[in-house]
Amino acid sequence: MAETKIPFARVVCSGNELEYVRQVLESGWLTTAGKAGEFEKKFAVQVGARRALAVNSCTSALHLGLEALGLKPGDEVIVPALTFAASAETVRYLGAEPVICDVDGRTGLLRPETVAAIAAGRPKVKAVMPVHYGGQSVRMFADAQGPGLMEVARAYGLKIVEDAAHAFPARYQADAGPVGSLEETVCCFSFYANKTITTAEGGMLTSGSEDVLRRASVMRLHGIDRDVWARFTSAKPSWRYDVVAPGYKYNLPDVLAAIGLAQLEQAAAWRLARENIARRYYEALGRLEALDLLQLRSGLSPADHSWHLFPVILKPEARLGRDEFIERLAERGIGASVHYCPLYRLRYYRERYGLDPADFPETEKIWAGTVSLPIYPSLTADETEYVCLTVAELLGG
Ligand SMILES: Cc1ncc(COP(=O)(O)O)c(C=O)c1O
User: Fold this and answer.
1) For ligand 1, is residue 164 a contact (CB within 6 Å)?
2) Does pLDDT of 2 surpass 80?
3) Does 205 sit in the ligand 1 pocket, CB within 6 Å?
4) Of ligand 1's atoms, which has the minimum distance to the CA of residue 190?
5) What atom of ligand 1 comes closest to residue 191's alpha carbon?
6) Are 71 and 118 in the same domain?
């Protein structure tokens, strides 16, 4: 196999990462303190959120968000099939059940009308988890296409936990705020190593609900509530605390928050760089007979999309199958990946819920041929052209 010249993902730490990490190392305190707090404040400003809570992964944020909303064993949560395992597993952590549903085959996104149809017939559905797949947001507000998820959720009394692992920075639509700014939802971001910004491992939870923020901040660190203790004592020794619930260990250490702070400073420029690569891919690859490209949802412009992923979909009649295509790309030094094997095809979910791929025709259309191409800010114009030329050569222009 050829040396990989163009990996699928490439982390950039070209800003103040080393300097901010050095400050933490020299401070004598590596875990959660001032840098994590600063990261939360600056992130909240960037996404227009009332408050942000830094955690050690998006998975933790999803778990905390569902828990803070009061999800109970036996409750149901609508989760789209085209997502990473974390979206559904966090529902199971709480003994609740994911109701796995089809997505729109043109965009890869959960459709509000699908949510309405499911919620109408299943009284146990208490919440929905829109996944802003690849970095474009699910339709949250009504438009010419129909009601938005916010209206549907209100009509059926559903809570919303947004899986925004891919969607920083992104917007709900031109006249709405950034993803993460909605007061009524809980929104969860990922800073995993290959995400749009990274802390190696990390995540963030935003919400406008004081109750959610309070519960999630207590549960993220062992259920320790210092304020509860403060209520019962006037002289407040700093070592005193009370535990109000069996919480988790989900805090983000300062040494990682320091990397996040530096990455945050570059996030807007990096999003634009990815947008420019996506524009070039649409131009060059949109012409190929053998490929379908995901569409931008109505109401969104390219500037509203984070462009975390660039999936292309090989048509059934393409001259190469998906696995062979990925192998040929690798032989030519290009890394590729697949997002995702749908939840209903993973053994645990397939067997537990008796799921049949035939019931997910739109997701199947994407799954059958999907391949994600490299898209990151350090991908040069020459490398982008090389990817375009190689894909055309392999599939026939
Ligand atoms: C859609 C989606 N949700 C959740 C996650 C979990 O993120 P983390 O690795 O930060 O827990 C990922 C990670 O890849 C993801 O792609």
Assistant:
1) no
2) no
3) no
4) 10
5) 10
6) yes
> Which of 200, 206, 142, 129 shows the shortest CA–CA distance to 169?
206
Tokens of 64: 């905390």
Give yes or no for residue 343 CB within 6 A of ligand 1. Answer: no
Q: Distance between CA atoms of 216 and 115, rounded to whole angstroms?
A: 26
Q: Can you give the pLDDT at residue 3? A: 64
In this predicted structure, the answer to whether residue 397 has a pLDDT above a threshold of 90 is: no
The response to whether residue 87 sits with its C-beta less than 6 Å from ligand 1 reads yes
Residues with catalytic roles: 195
Q: Is the CB of 340 under 6 A from ligand 1?
A: no
Atom nearest to 195 CA in ligand 1 = 14
Assigned domain for 12 exists: no
Distance 190 CA to ligand 1 centre (A): 6
Nearest to 175 by CA among 295, 301, 269: 301
**pLDDT on residue 1:** 46
The two beta strands, 159-163 and 203-207, are unpaired
pLDDT tens track for 190-209: 999 999 999 999 999 999 99
Q: What is the pTM of this model?
A: 0.97
Are 105 and 242 members of one domain? yes
Tens of pLDDT, residues 273-304: 999 999 999 999 999 999 999 999 999 999 99
The verdict on residue 126 lying in a domain is yes
**Tokens, residue 55:** 């955690």
Q: How far is CA 339 from CA 85, 209, 280, 295, in A?
A: 11, 32, 21, 16
Residue ranges making up the domain that contains 378: 267-395
Structural domain count of the chain: 2
Q: Give the strands of the sheet with 291-293, arranged side by side.
A: 291-293, 310-314, 370-373
Q: Which atom of ligand 1 is nearest to the CA of 163?
A: 3
Q: Is residue 9 part of a domain?
A: no
**Distance from residue 49's CA to the centre of ligand 1 (Å):** 20
Pocket test for ligand 1, best of 58, 195, 306 (most atoms within 8 A of CB): 58
Same domain for 97 and 189 = yes
The domain boundary, picked from 264, 282, 315, lies at 264
Average pLDDT, integer, range 118-147 = 96
